[in-house]
Amino acid sequence: MPVDTVPVDQESLHVRSVVADTHNDLLMAVSARPPAMWASFFRERWLPQLVEGGVDVQVLPVFVESRFRPEGALRQTLRMIECAHALAEGSPDAVALCHDGQQIDEALALGRIALVLALESMPGIDESVELIPTLHRLGVRVASIAHWGRTALADGSGQDGTGSRLTSHGVEVLREMERLGMLFDISHLGATGVAHVLEIATRPVIATHSSARVLRDHHRNLTDEQLRGVAAGGGVVCVNFLAAFLTEDARSATVDHLVDHIEHIAGVAGIDHVGLGPDFMREVNEDLTPPCCEGFSYSGIDSNAAIPGLEGPRGLPLVTDALVKRGFSEEEIQKILGANVMRLFRAELGRPAHDRPAHGLAQDRHAQDKHAQDGPAHDAPVDDRPARERPEPERPRP
After folding, report:
1. N or C, which end of the chain has less CB nearby within 10 Å?
2. pTM for the structure as a whole
3. How many Å apart are CA 368 and CA 378, to the nearest integer?
4. CA nearest to 200, candidates 392, 311, 359, 51
């Protein structure tokens, strides 16, 4: 990357930049407390970290743990959404729950942190696509449809061996999100599912917390082909900080490993298509299971292993410092820290399909009827009707 001719003041640059974190599971930690404590716990435990880290835009994913699935999944989804509203209402001087780019800009102008609600997988929805507008009304603006395993909508990356595309209902969810102005998140989606989404999507997509597979061969990371596909559609790939996804020896991970991934993604997808999706699991784990157990793992991943200094959001200025030292220009650093995500949010969040032109790549590939997981595809016009007004997808005969 080119080096600025004028030395960059790292601390000043971080403060002057819009910093967007597209994945922090803090709602898991906050919602684990009694409802009466939600607002105060966030204000005392998490808000100071966001402020110290210079976070301006914080995406809040709703992740439903396995102990709630399947019967309690929708209840826990709604509970965590209510938690997000409660913590925002409890700190109106410091944060604002935002539904579109204009509201984000207004929050930033007032010196508040803009919060954006997201879903990490949809165990509370499954085949009930008609509930997507309900979640949209509650403020959800970003969503993925799978985690590690199989869902009614798609297979997660842990099931890559199945080679499965989106199910018919998964395609319906994508279409409904595009109609409403919700960003589709490909992080955690299986490889064939990612290819399917990139094939049929009519709007840009986001990877909220994924790193480069060529540098760390793990199914949670994205291949160069996938990186190029996201960029070609106008989307953004936000790099995951979790040490186990950066290097094979997670306990030896450094900020340089993180910058390696940022640099690679910028080189493959382009500097306009990379952002930050930290996924600070160690901080969340400590709040959920104090004292946090050494060596705690999830699906074989040591989720407590963290880059020194980047265990939580207060360490984000270290990323700016490392990018400066690597030779990124001031403009490039600002794009990585949040300008790229902000461009995407301003263009897509909360903007219904009829309020914006279709992306150029999508104009001649509208294919809503590419339902079948393994069936033949054929072109068809996009149906802009709400899911509840469309005919049920054809189901295979027994």
Report:
1. C
2. 0.88
3. 9
4. 359
